[in-house]
Amino acid sequence: MEDSIPQMAKEIEMDISGESDDFRLNGKADLVLRSQRSKRLKHVVEFKRSLGVTGIKKDALRLAWICANTPNGHRAEKNFLVAVTHKPESLFKTRTSNIEEWIKEEFDGNIKVNFEPVNLSPLKSTHKNGGGKELFGGVWEFNYVE
């Protein structure tokens, strides 16, 4: 499941030397999707159980950085951030606006962000602070555009 960002960078010939630690490029990605036959990297996926600004921002910026620095035409120009929480659904709209703003500031409009809500209404939270509350989910897609 998890995979090292430096190992991924080496695999797809992406230079991470000299990059700011703001993008946590020395860490691991939660999930790396690979092709079934060749085992080549396709996409990077990060997961969040909350919509806290700090965690969402770090993952969003790292995924956008990977999109922007992947060799042209490689499938890793598109990556995903998945979140599930018992917080109100309206918070996803706020975080989407936040993400779009952070990405625009950092990447000058070269990264497109799409948000897709996921219907989890039949499911209830088991979290100690949100036990029994309805769950909400969503997926942000980060895609490099020229």
What does this 3D model show about the protein?
The chain is an alpha+beta fold. Helices cover 29% and strands 28% of the residues. The strands form 2 sheets. A 5-stranded mixed beta sheet has the order 3-4-5-7-6. A hairpin with a 6-residue loop joins β3 (31-34) and β4. α2 (53-69) crosses α3 (90-107). It is globular and about 45 Å long.
Short note summarizing the structure:
This protein has helices at 5-11, 53-69, 90-107, and strands at residues 3-4, 28-29, 31-34, 41-48, 78-85, 111-118, 136-144.
Describe the secondary structure blueprint for this structure.
Elements: E1 3-4, H1 5-11, E2 28-29, E3 31-34, E4 41-48, H2 53-69, E5 78-85, H3 90-107, E6 111-118, E7 136-144
Parallel strand pairs: 4-5
Antiparallel strand pairs: 1-2, 3-4, 5-7, 6-7
Helix pairs in contact: 2-3
